[in-house]
């Protein structure tokens, strides 16, 4: 399986491009040393936003396409968070990351820069959590004073408290002591001056141990700002200005550290010291300039480049006028634009232009990756495989759609005149989630679909009840004769589409049934109890809900069927819920809920839960279970250590068994509506064939996922 690593910025100007390229460079170098001459997998890279500042994709495609693949058309920049277009793009990424996992050793994602999108934090979090990505944060440090770092630490801790990331590898602090972070509006000339003034700066990546004393994150690297990375050469300026030259020395290897505008009125021009200087001169003043610098000692003064502005003469005439400059090995550019125009354009000079130079990029990668002193332990150390699978909400939805698509089961929907059912059917057909069979009059169904702008394919199967119900009358009589059923009563009963659909399921014409969007729970499940019935060794039918929280999926049971289960029934609900969880590759960790934890309380309700827990332990010693336990101790490791320090679930329960229907139903609806989350279910357990009930307030999404669950349950 591929490792998915996501780089997430915590501030502006953190050097996301350079760090991204350096991590992939480091990963590839280390992989070579590990696998030697063995064939290795490639790296897959994509950025969440495509814009003119994203040099990474350009560089990879130009220089590293043999080892790093990129994805086209991934761009969240113009999409509203959680909009249909957003979800569509998200699904595309899920497909890429999950359908071809063996092709790549590493899938590397560059997150969205802060302030590049109004919901940058939400999108980064959504992707990282639902792709189950390992996260590396990137931040900058303007200085390393105690007060500054303490404030930085508080901000990061607050951010981590707000966003509950799961798989954090660590943090990289980049651009330490970068003077450009302080100067928000910095002209080209000012930047050159800063570079010159920092010429003798000592590069260090050592931060005193007293800093970041809380060890809030594993620090992967401290990367200092290095002025050598920012060096500007003659050819960089030539390419940026897109002007011509008549003389270019040493293919532009000369460094430019300062710019000067020639003014013949400056009496101190000869007394100045020129160090890697670019001089801008109006061509009309070239003779004055040459006369003034004839006495200049060019061994001590390094004039690297001359830009002649306002040139209207032929190239040959310019060469003739600049013979002295050519002899002194000075590069000469010329343009018909005036000096002010050239200065104005230089103001927008992009210091990242060098990111397009391969030699520079490799030097940069080596410099930055040299500070990854703990990457051997973090980046290259694969996490141990665990039995337990923890899903994020979108990941779970993607998984059940994928699983349902593979099973391709026939699910009958008796409420075919309900708009939400038709919308869900249309989506299930287009996404191939399941084969939905509608029970009703085709003409009426198509009219409802047309009136509500629903595209309903003619390939979707529709069963007309009037054409099939007579053949099921005798079967209903046979199944219910011990309860006084006769042909007359059966003929009346079978007019109910729920009963007819259940008989069609019992006849193996379909694989599952979903109803309840307009019918009560009892109307949906009573026919299943009477016709489908339970397994021979089971007398109980129960239900679970999948609660899709912000960063996890929990299972609640029983919140729909059993009003006041006794200890034996409660134990059965727990066992059924655990077995259902395993269908979805979720390793069950069961919390038997009560108002009391351990031995802290007493009473009939507490004792019932305690007895149920012991029954489960006796019948299924393979299951991880604790009870009686309060909800907070079941979900929080901190509270668990206080209230139940020896609990086997250690505050990480994923299945919650409520003591009765009253508490369970109230709890699931309170969480669903207050947290505005998707709740999938109830999914019924214990029946010989899958029949699932919808809440009458179910959304289209919830109906689709219930159809998928039913398909997965089918054998």
From TrEMBL:
It is an enzyme of class 2 (transferase). Signal peptide: none annotated. It catalyses: acetyl-CoA + phosphate = acetyl phosphate + CoA. SUPFAM superfamilies: HprK N-terminal domain-like, Isocitrate/Isopropylmalate dehydrogenase-like. Residues 398-710 form the Phosphate acetyl/butaryl transferase domain. Pathway: Metabolic intermediate biosynthesis; acetyl-CoA biosynthesis; acetyl-CoA from acetate: step 2/2. Keywords: Acyltransferase, Cytoplasm, Transferase. Pfam families: AAA_26, PTA_PTB. It is found in: Cytoplasm. Its EC number is 2.3.1.8. InterPro entries: P-Actrans_bac (IPR016475), P_AcTrfase (IPR004614), P_AcTrfase_dom1 (IPR042113), P_AcTrfase_dom2 (IPR042112), Phos_Acetyltrans/Butyryltrans (IPR050500), PTA_PTB (IPR002505), Ser_kin/Pase_Hpr-like_N_sf (IPR028979). One of its GO terms (cellular component) is cytoplasm. The N-terminal region seems to be important for proper quaternary structure. The C-terminal region contains the substrate-binding site. Homohexamer. In the C-terminal section; belongs to the phosphate acetyltransferase and butyryltransferase family. Involved in acetate metabolism. This is Phosphate acetyltransferase. It comes from Buchnera aphidicola subsp. Uroleucon sonchi.
């Amino acid at each position: 399986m591929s490792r998915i690593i996501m780089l997430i910025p915590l501030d502006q100007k953190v050097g996301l491009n350079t760090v991204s390229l350096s991590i992939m460079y480091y990963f590839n170098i280390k992989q070579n040393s590990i696998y030697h001459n063995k064939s290795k997998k490639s790296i897959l890279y994509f950025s969440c936003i495509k814009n003119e500042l994203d040099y990474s994709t350009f560089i990879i495609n130009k220089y590293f396409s043999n080892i790093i693949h990129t994805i086209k058309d991934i761009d969240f920049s113009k999409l509203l968070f959680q909009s249909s277009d957003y979800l569509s793009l998200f699904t595309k990424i899920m497909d890429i990351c999950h359908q071809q996992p063996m092709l790549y050793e590493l899938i590397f994602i560059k997150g969205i820069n802060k302030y590049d999108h109004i919901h940058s934090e939400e999108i980064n979090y959504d992707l990282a959590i639902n792709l189950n990505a390992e996260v590396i944060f990137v931040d900058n440090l303007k200085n390393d004073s105690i007060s500054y770092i303490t404030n930085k630490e508080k901000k990061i801790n607050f951010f981590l408290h707000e966003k509950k990331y799961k798989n954090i590898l660590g943090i990289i602090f980049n651009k330490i002591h970068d003077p450009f972070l302080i100067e928000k509006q910095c002209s080209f000339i000012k930047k050159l001056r800063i570079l010159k003034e920092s010429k003798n700066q000592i590069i260090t990546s050592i931060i005193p141990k007293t800093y970041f004393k809380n060890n809030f994150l594993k620090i992967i690297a401290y990367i200092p700002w290095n002025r050598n990375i920012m060096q500007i050469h003659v050819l960089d300026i030539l390419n940026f200005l897109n002007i011509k030259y008549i003389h270019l020395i040493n293919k532009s290897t000369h460094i430019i550290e300062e710019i000067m505008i020639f003014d013949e009125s400056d009496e101190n021009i000869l007394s100045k010291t020129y160090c890697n200087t670019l001089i801008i001169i109006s061509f009309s003043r070239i003779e004055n300039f040459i006369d003034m610098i004839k006495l200049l000692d060019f061994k001590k003064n390094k004039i690297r480049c001359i830009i002649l502005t306002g040139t209207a003469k032929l190239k040959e005439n310019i060469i003739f006028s600049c013979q002295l400059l050519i002899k002194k090995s000075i590069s000469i550019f010329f343009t018909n634009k005036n000096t002010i125009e050239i200065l104005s354009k230089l103001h927008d000079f992009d210091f990242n232009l060098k990111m397009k130079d391969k030699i520079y990029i490799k030097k940069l990668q080596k410099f930055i990756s040299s500070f990854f002193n703990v990457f051997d332990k973090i980046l290259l150390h694969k996490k141990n495989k665990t039995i337990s699978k923890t899903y994020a909400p979108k990941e779970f939805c993607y998984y059940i759609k994928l699983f349902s698509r593979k099973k391709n089961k026939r699910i009958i929907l008796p409420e075919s005149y309900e708009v939400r059912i038709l919308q869900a059917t249309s989506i299930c057909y287009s996404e191939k989630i399941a084969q939905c069979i509608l029970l009703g009059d085709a003409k009426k169904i198509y009219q409802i679909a047309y009136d509500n702008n629903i595209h309903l394919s003619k390939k979707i199967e529709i069963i007309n009840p009037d054409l099939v119900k007579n053949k099921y009358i005798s079967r209903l009589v046979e199944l219910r004769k011990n309860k006084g059923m006769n042909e007359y009563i059966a003929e009346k009963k079978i007019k109910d589409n729920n009963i007819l659909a259940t008989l069609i399921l019992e006849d193996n014409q379909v694989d599952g049934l979903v109803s309840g969007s307009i019918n009560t729970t009892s109307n949906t499940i009573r026919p299943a109890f009477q016709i489908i019935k339970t397994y021979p060794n089971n007398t109980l039918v129960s239900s679970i809900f999948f609660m899709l929280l912000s960063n996890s999926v929990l299972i609640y049971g029983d919140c729909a069927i059993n009003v006041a289960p006794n200890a034996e029934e409660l134990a059965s609900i727990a066992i059924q819920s655990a077995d259902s969880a395993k269908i979805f590759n979720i390793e069950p960790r069961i919390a038997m809920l009560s108002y009391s934890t351990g031995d802290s309380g007493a009473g009939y309700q507490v004792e019932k839960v305690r007895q149920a827990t012991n029954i489960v332990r006796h019948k299924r010693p393979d299951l991880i279970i604790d009870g009686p336990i309060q909800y907070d101790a079941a979900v929080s490791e901190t509270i668990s250590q206080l209230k139940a320090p020896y609990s086997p679930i250690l505050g990480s329960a994923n299945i919650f068994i409520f003591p009765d229907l009253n508490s369970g139903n109230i709890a699931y609806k309170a969480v669903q509506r207050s947290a505005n989350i998707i709740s999938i279910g109830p999914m019924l357990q214990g029946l010989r064939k899958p029949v699932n009930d919808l809440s009458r307030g179910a959304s289209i999404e919830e109906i689709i996922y219930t159809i998928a669950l039913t398909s997965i349950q089918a054998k």
